Amino acid sequence: MIIEQAINQREGIEAILSAEKLPVADLPETLDNFLVATDNEQLIGVVGLEIYGAYGLLRSLAVLPEYRNKGVAWKLIERIEDLAASQGLKELYLLTETAAEYFAGKAFQKVTRDEVPDDIKHSSEFSHVCPVSAIVMKKSIR
Fold first, then answer.
1. 3-state secondary structure of 2
2. Distance separating alpha carbons of residues 142 and 44, to the nearest angstrom
């Protein structure tokens, strides 16, 4: 498995995200802060980072079903955390409807929407893409 920047991978990324019923309409124009996992040149996973001042929004984490429970998502999260640290970010935030327990196992903590920095609150994910029922989580960057 190889993890790399998502250069020229938009079509594959959109396909994986759509299959997992994750939003694609609000993807950034450039996917500079997105990473992909590949196996034998097949796209098997994706994760994205949106940067808002000193904070990051982890988004679009998806792994093909046949590659789940093999550490792919964890490797993607580790690498996106490294990217966030290299950008000098203080904290990562995310929204999830289905994976709160998984992210809690990766040291993310549930927070209220009121605890989220304003810059993150104004992102499309927070303001209108994800439902208000989604769980908000955060993690301090090392």
1. strand
2. 27
pLDDT in tens, 50-103: 999 999 999 999 999 999 999 999 999 999 999 999 999 999 999 998 889 999
* The token pair that represents 42 in the structure block: 């097949």
Q: Kindly report whether the global pTM for this prediction surpasses the value 0.70.
A: yes
Two tokens at 65?
Answer: 């079903």
Give pairs for 72-75: CB < 8 Å, separation 24+.
Answer: 72/1, 72/37, 72/44, 72/45, 73/45, 73/47, 73/102, 74/106, 75/1, 75/3, 75/37
C-alpha to C-alpha distance for 40 and 94, rounded to whole angstroms = 30
Q: What is the token pair recorded at 26?
A: 């609000």
Contact 99, 132 (CB under 8 A): no
Residue with tokens 């792994």: 63
Tokens encoding 59: 């988004």
CB atoms within 10 A of CB 55: 21
The tokens for 47 are: 């994760």
Q: pLDDT tens digit string along 11-38?
A: 999 999 999 988 888 888 889 999 999 9
